[in-house]
Fold this protein.
Amino acid sequence: MHDEISIISSEDRHYSIDKSAEILNLHHEVISVDKENRKMDVAYLSKTIDEEIKAGVKFLAVVLNMGSTMYGSVDDITKITELLKSKPVEFMIHVDAAFGGFIYPFINFENKMNFSNPHIVSFTLDAHKMLQAPYGTDIYLSRKGFIEGVLTEGASYVKGQDCTLSGSRSGANAISVWMILRAYGSQGGIEFCHEIWERTNSLCDELDALQVQYFRESFMNIVTISSPYISESIAHKYRLVPNCHENPQWWKIVVMDHVTPQIIASFLSELSEYLTDSFALNKKAVKTELFSEHL
């Protein structure tokens, strides 16, 4: 039976998707992304689904990103839903909004990645990111009628039912989220997101002026800089996050309230100096090479 089910996720997925596939012993197909916008490649997805159907797959569990871990990218829910509906296979969509869930919908009011799409059955959100709750404060939202399949009455000594893999967990985390949301209020939360977003826009404007190559989803506060445009010493000084520690190709900035305009200005000043020096060195190297060719 399990060989009739397949998990579909993006190249920019969170590594927990791979873990889940291993635990459940389910086939997992990874879909490449468009390198320009980091969205799931719909043409590649279509081809993969056709191959899965041909192999006997009857149900797809599709995981989409609302703010991927490294790039903050957001998959195109409309295009992907229409594609899935055109295929002779059952499917459900889960949205990984661990990072984007507490900012993307509050900035992009045209957001279509919500329960108004009947094919989305669940979301995951991390309150320990944008809400700055204690680490490990995760939220799982499920459409009505879908949570019953994982409820257990095994822990009869606990009031209510457990529907998690981890089981025991701290109630203090839930209380902290409630208090944070109460402190912000709905309007205060939106204003906080917009302030962070505008700060990110200002950073990107300056990076554009410096002609730095970077990726940024327009409604997110994550900016990921291509490694040739930044020195490792600057990246480490400002605690940027590498896409891998062995040979980083990208360095991630997460703009939060503690990333003040003064810190951003200092970072940009050092980055500008580094780029100026690098350009001068490259120009000197080219001149030396040309001179050598004429000898």
User: Anything to note?
Assistant: The longest strand covers residues 59-65. The domain at 2-126+135-169 is CATH 3.40.640.10 (Aspartate Aminotransferase; domain 2). The chain is about 40% helix and 15% strand. The helical segments are 15-24, 42-54, 77-85, 104-107, 171-209, 232-237, 261-294.
